[in-house]
Amino acid sequence: MSITIALSKGRIFEETLPLLAAAGIEPLESPDSSRKLIIDTNHAEIRLIIVRATDVPTYVQYGAADIGVAGHDVLLEHGGAGLYQPVDLRIAQCRLMVATRVGFDYEAAVRQGARLRVATKYTESARQHFAKKGVHVDLIKLYGSMELAPLVGLADAIVDLVSTGSTLKANQLVAVEHVLDVSSRLVVNQAALKLKRKQLQPLLDQIASAISC
Amino acid sequence: MSIASMQHWILPENISDVLPPEARRIEFLRRKLLDCCSRFGYELVMPPLLEYVESLFTLEDAALDLKTFKLTDQLSGRQMGLRADITPQVARIDAHLLNRHGVTRLCYAGSIVNTRPDGILSSREPLQVGAELYGHDGLTADVEIIELMHSCLKLAGVESIHLDVGHIGLFLALADEAELSGDLRQAIFNAMQKKNLPELATLTAHLPETIRKGITSLPQLYGGVGVLHDAARLLPDFPQIRSALSDLQLLSEALQLLGIEVFFDLAELRSGYYHTGLVFAAYAPGWSNAIARGGRYDRVGEKFGRPRPATGFSVDLKELAWKLPPPPARPAILSPDCIDPALIELTRSLRASGETVVVKLGDVMDVDELKADREIRQVADKWIVVPIDV
Fold it and tell me: Locate the ATP phosphoribosyltransferase catalytic domain: which residues (chain A) (predicted)?
């Protein structure tokens, strides 16, 4: 039986390569130089597919891929149905944060209890975060350039991934609250783990041991 | 035509018509499965499509509650629900209507409706077929139900079946010992089902070492028989854990004798909302989810005033059918549109013998669509069946 691994281009792909190498898997092409979406590896029965980061859980859930690498943020939005997520790969690490315009009194806005307008791509995580705090929010779903929303008066705050903080700084925003730490997880299709255990288990074990050392 | 009226024919999300080839396949399977249950001595029951919510699910079944469509009964003003699962209905029938003291075996086939689909591609109107065995708390009842499920899947044409068994008692023993309750218990239960080890490590960090080790080991205990030895080593030596592991051992030995290979997944808890002991799920190549699930649910009858040991399984025929080849169709015979006593007699006798005879109406007739390979022709004043000339 063949194994299909779903990965997204960019940081996740680059940081997953050493882990795959530890399991003896080398892609034959790079997704940056090739426009191919299916990439063969040095093992005839293992192939990689290149999909959008937010689509990785969907491909794995429906068995279009057996395993994949997806950010914790993406998994929370997806809900994780039909997936096992046994390993934290500790790659592509960053933080999901609440940020506001410099000078905006976030604490006072929260205390006041009025509805806060929050722009984000991560609506599920944001909803849970503010529900836990007991704050009512109006969520505005955006697909990119979140930093703009507070500057043009679209929102009071944003919930976005922050790795160095330089984008926030360049736009006169400041991170005011930590939502969660994000890193990438290995996700496995539930039926595949049962039906292809002989092939998948060694792969999972090798990847897991490559992380702990 | 306006856009609104053009869209009148569109069905709601995840609700679909079942068209001829698919309907034939599903009906073929439904009959096969019910016949199979009947040969094991299971009697068919037909619970209603809707009833009062109080009997459809218990208050603790928050997940089943959310899955149930509700409406107000105009006669009583009470809230009714469209069934999202038939098992509790059958348990109600066993507990209240039949009132038998010995073993009762019941089977059923019917549509259920879910407010939310189980997956993007899942129907919100699955066709649930299942069998339940009441009144016996021994392993032989579990073995019988698993053998029945296995036979049903084989008869349906599923070639290679991977059977996973687990025991909810393991999780319950650990959770009760640690006195887990409320949100934390639910969070650990959810993370366990996803084998989400990083999350489990965080959630259990403050728990006693034996419990923490037990809970984080469970999701890793899956695979062949070796799992039970590892479990005995990694899980704390509580009486409920010892008895659950011994149940699993005995179950696998009994099934092995029946020629059914068993695998284990000790974190397999998601069979239903009400399970209490042994649980199982069947997987097969081609399906990205379990195709059949079941297990023991000894406490459901309690709600109906009569606790009864119970075990059973169910299958969604729609999910099962779409990956299976269609059953062989018997080619039809075309008959001319003509009223003649001899022709009528021939047609009747052919139909009585099980043939499909289709009367040719009008000029447009797609022989391929009817899958006809013969026709009735008049030759020298006699009606005879001849192959269709192509």
Answer: 52-208
Burial class from Cβ neighbours inside 10 Å (0-12, 13-18, 19+) for residue B107 reads buried
What distance separates the 2 farthest-apart alpha carbons in chain A?
Answer: 61
- Which chain A residues are closer than 8 Å to B63 by Cβ? none
Taking CA atoms, B323 is separated from A151, A195, B13, B25, in Å, by 52, 16, 21, 10
Question: Residues of B with CB below 8 A from A73's CB?
Answer: none
Cβ atoms B215, B191 nearer than 8 A: no
B195 and A197 in contact by Cβ < 8 A? no
ipTM of the complex: 0.85
Average pLDDT for A90-112 = 92
Are the beta carbons of A175 and A164 closer than 8 angstroms? no
Residue A94 touches partner B, C-beta closer than 8 Å: no
Contact present, A49 and A60 (Cβ < 8 Å): no
Whole-number Å distance between alpha carbons of A152 and A15: 36
- Mark yes or no for CB contact A88/B198 under 8 Å: yes
B264: contact with A, CB 8 A cutoff: no
What 3-state class would DSSP assign to B13? coil
Distances, alpha carbon B309 to alpha carbons A15, B134, B139, B173, B296, in Å:
52, 6, 11, 19, 8
Q: Tokens for A125, please give them.
A: 């995580």
Q: In this predicted model, what pLDDT tens digit does every residue of B319-353 receive, in sequence order?
A: 999 888 888 778 899 999 988 999 999 999 999 99
pLDDT tens digit sequence for B208-223: 999 999 999 999 999 9
SS3 of B266-311: CCCCCCCCCCCCEEEEEECCCCCCCCEEEEECCCHHHHHCCCCCEE
Question: Judged by CB atoms within 8 Å, which residues 326-385 of B form the interface with A?
Answer: none
Phi, psi for B374 (deg, rounded to 5): -135, 165
CA-to-CA separations, B74 to B71, B77, B78, B102, B177, in angstroms, rounded: 9, 5, 8, 39, 47
Q: How far apart are the first and last CA of chain B?
A: 42
Domains with residue ranges and CATH for chain A = 3-92+183-212 (3.40.190.10), 94-180 (3.40.190.10)
Measured between alpha carbons, how far is B41 from B33 in angstroms, rounded to an integer? Answer: 13
For residue A18, pLDDT over 60 is answered with: yes
Altogether, the residues listed in chain A come to a count of 213
Nearest CA in chain B to A198: B223
Report how many Cβ contacts below 8 Å link chain A to chain B.
63
Cβ-count burial B156-175 (b if 16+ within 10 Å, e if not): bbbeebbbbbbbbbbbbbbb
Residue A52, CA distances (Å) to A14, A125, B203 in order: 15, 19, 30
Q: Does any CB of chain A come closer than 8 Å to the CB of residue B263?
A: yes
- Residue A127 binned pLDDT confidence (cut-offs 50, 70, 90): very high
